[in-house]
Amino acid sequence: MDQPFVDTLRPHLRYLAPEQELRPEDRLRDLGLNSMQAIDLVFDLEDNCGVTLPDDQLTDANFETAGALWSAVENARSDSLTDAR
After folding, report:
1. What are the two backbone dihedrals, phi and then psi, of residue 28, each rounded to the nearest 5 degrees?
2. Residues 1-12, mean pLDDT to the nearest whole number
3. Which of 29, 41, 50, 79 is deepest in the core (most CB within 10 A)?
4. What phi, psi does 10 have (nearest 5°)?
5. Cβ distance 66 to 23 under 8 Å?
């Protein structure tokens, strides 16, 4: 997980202490992400990480853990690079 991703995700996780490291296995709901915040998070990720998350990637599984969401962001980056060619 890169720093822009973590910096974008952190404000949406009210139960993640400022000094606490965000780990790939951390469950986002346990850290305070709810479905309404997830919508705002998608917009923030698209703006701050330079990706467009397709509707088919906006699944509960992709928002389960920080690592799963990171994988979705990375896949969106890969897809946009492939589309640009």
Report:
1. -65, -35
2. 96
3. 41
4. -50, -45
5. yes
Q: Do residues 33 and 8 touch, judged by C-beta distance below 8 A?
A: no
Domain limits, the chain: 3-14+27-84
Positive/negative CA dihedral, 82, 23, 67, 69: negative
And the tokens for 76?
């969106």
* Cα–Cα distance list, 50 to 17, 18, 27, 31, 64 (Å): 26, 25, 24, 24, 22
Which pLDDT belongs to residue 82?
Answer: 57
For residue 52, the cross-strand partners are none
The CA distance from 70 to 65, in Å, is: 9
Architecture per CATH, domain 3-14+27-84, reads as Orthogonal Bundle (1.10)
Q: 78 or 29, which is more confident?
A: 29
